[in-house]
């Protein structure tokens, strides 16, 4: 009965709705690397010219793990092992890394959040920050909200979720997030960015499996473990 795209609703636990989404992109410093040298595919990071600390890669692989829907687990884990063999610059945190990139410390960044890049570009007076949408575009469900079975006013909560998925509610996410509206709502920044592009969509069938995907990718990276 509610007016919202079905893709936003958890088909198993239908009291949960993802009112936003997230996209992963490639960010680069325009003065340190030309746009035509930036990889056009995720596999492009495996080229010899990007070996030995030529790009930044997050230690929390939310980006690489989200390739499983498009590639399958085994191909994704093989890709993770090959990324590690490239000897990247390991970093933590999109905003921190993008700030360092603006200062000229990094030329190329694998998989930061699209909204984080757009926010940084808004403050980039020198216009040195660029980005590419690489296919399959990594798309993740975001901003999940739910209604407790013991909620005092469950129908009011349902109406709130319907509002969050409406054009007016999405405008709040677009302006207040900013840029965190859903790819399932026509006209949002993220919907326009992925329109017509091949995607690796972390939908509800993968959503709860992402922690396990991340664990497996971290294992493939081969990070050392603390000894007991």
Please specify the SSE layout and strand pairing.
Layout: E1 16-29, E2 56-58, H1 62-65, H2 68-71, H3 73-85, E3 89-91, H4 94-102, E4 108-113, H5 114-123, E5 129-132, E6 137-146, H6 154-164, H7 167-176, H8 189-194, E7 199-202, H9 204-207, H10 210-221
How would you explain this protein's 3D organization?
The protein is α/β, with parallel strands linked by helices. It has 10 helices and 7 strands. It has a domain of 132 residues: 3-Layer(aba) Sandwich (D-Maltodextrin-Binding Protein, domain 2). Strands 1, 2, 3, 4, 5, 6 and 7 form a 7-stranded mixed β-sheet that branches. Helix 3 packs parallel to helix 10. The longest helix has 13 residues. The chain is globular. The protein starts with 15 loop residues before the first strand and ends in a 7-residue tail after the last helix.
